């Protein structure tokens, strides 16, 4: 019997992602009786052209929201739009039954922005570049 081939790459592959997602969903269903992983996108568009300017993307699964990417162009920062996008992401996660959310940012990116919006740090890992680290953050999405 031939040994399986392992291929390492650096390009996005929708079919590969679909296969992994289906496998993970099947495993989760068998292990805990549930599979509810869904993408969560908050898109900021130009009001006249509809051009995508930025936003947030992530996913929800088993009561947890994952904020994976968040970007707004420099011209859209500082007037509260980022907080509105983050609020919309959190509101949709709550509507899906998520009780908490997690993300990571880089030390020179936006940890202060997230802290201002109620997120707390729970870990930090230094990179090889002096003074640069990954900061892991969480937020409870419910109030009691």
Automatic annotation (TrEMBL):
Keywords for this entry?
Answer: Transferase
- Per the UniProt entry, the signal peptide is none
Q: Which organism is it from?
A: Duganella phyllosphaerae
Give all residue intervals belonging to the N-acetyltransferase domain. 1-142
Tell me which CDD domains the record gives.
NAT_SF
SUPFAM superfamilies the UniProt entry points to: Acyl-CoA N-acyltransferases (Nat) (SSF55729)
In alphabetical order, the GO MF annotations are: acyltransferase activity, transferring groups other than amino-acyl groups
Give one Pfam family.
Answer: Acetyltransf_1
Question: What is the protein name stated in its UniProt record?
Answer: Acetyltransferase (GNAT) family protein
Entry-linked InterPro entries:
Acyl_CoA_acyltransferase (IPR016181), GNAT_dom (IPR000182)
